[in-house]
Amino acid sequence: MIIAVDGPAASGKGTVARALARHFDLPHLDTGLLYRAVAYTVHRLELDPTREADAIAACDFDELTLADPALRDDEVGQLASVVSVHPLVRAALFQRQKRFANQPGGAVLDGRDIGTVIAPEADAKLFVKATAPVRARRRHHELTERGREITYEQVLADIRARDARDSARSTAPLTQAADAAPLDTSALTVEAATRRAIALVNGRLIGRRSTA
Ligand code: CDP
Fold first, then answer.
1. Is the per-residue pLDDT at 212 higher than 80?
2. Helices (H) and strands (E) in the chain, counts
3. Is residue 199, in this structure, part of any structural domain at all?
4. Structural Rg of the chain based on CA atoms
5. Of the candidates 89, 82, 80, 81, which has an alpha carbon nearest to the alpha carbon of residue 36?
6. What is the C-alpha to C-alpha distance for residues 168 and 191, in angstroms, rounded to an integer?
7. Which end of the chain is more exposed for a tag (fewer CB within 10 A), N or C?
């Protein structure tokens, strides 16, 4: 069983995806980390993230990079949305995500284009969203908890810039798949969002069985 979870920055998609993976006992891949690893490598090698050739050179990143807490920084998220615009970067990361999705038993993947590009055949698709101010508050809390000095206004501006870049790119833009179930987490606790996500996935699975 493949579960695709997409949505914008700090919408709660990672939390929902991890909870679904636990509930359905499936492996989980946070695909944003792959783009963050490319971005971080571009930065470390002092390459130009706007140049496709530079960004591709960073796709061959060291696997240990994926565990680096620096990937969670706001600047790396911004840079990730710059490198992820390049079609050849997306192509370089495609097979790895596809393989993860197609492993025996299935998987949960979260990102921006899982239900549309990586696993359009997914058994259940969720599109997790929340208003920009709610997402900015969450991300601001997360970052300040980790000791980062950043204002709420800066986080909100960054989230808006990233939303715009992720939605406007021509290759694999952030968009809700036609067959994805929307889940607005703006007014939901983590527990409520998790319960709702499990119910939506179960609903999709039952729906699939009855139409098969
Ligand atoms: O955790 P957050 O939602 O802030 O970001 P992320 O999921 O780690 O993704 C960082 C950036 O990588 C996004 O803003 C996208 O530009 C890019 N990304 C993408 O293009 N496609 C994906 N499947 C996942 C992330």
1. no
2. 8, 5
3. no
4. 17
5. 80
6. 32
7. C
Q: Give the separation between CA 33 and CA 61, rounded to whole angstroms.
A: 12
DSSP-derived 3-state class of residue 41? helix
The values of phi and psi at residue 46, to 5°, are: 55, 45
Q: What is the CATH number of the domain that holds 140?
A: 3.40.50.300
* pLDDT (average), residues 138-163: 93
Could you tell me which residue, 207 or 36, shows the higher pLDDT?
A: 36
Sheet order of strands, 107-111 included: 28-30, 107-111, 2-6, 124-129, 181-184
Instruction: Please indicate whether residue 135, judged by its CB atom, sits closer than 6 Å to ligand 1.
Output: no
How far is Cα of residue 80 from the mean position of the Cα atoms in its chain? 11
Any domain includes 135: yes
Question: How many distinct structural domains can be found in the chain?
Answer: 1
CA distance 166 to 132: 14
Look up tokens 């299935």; give the residue.
Answer: 106
Q: Domain of 132?
A: 2-194
d(CA 58, CA 92): 10
Average pLDDT over residues 3-32: 97
| Mutational test site, ligand 1, from 84, 93, 167, 171, max ligand atoms within 8 Å of CB | 84
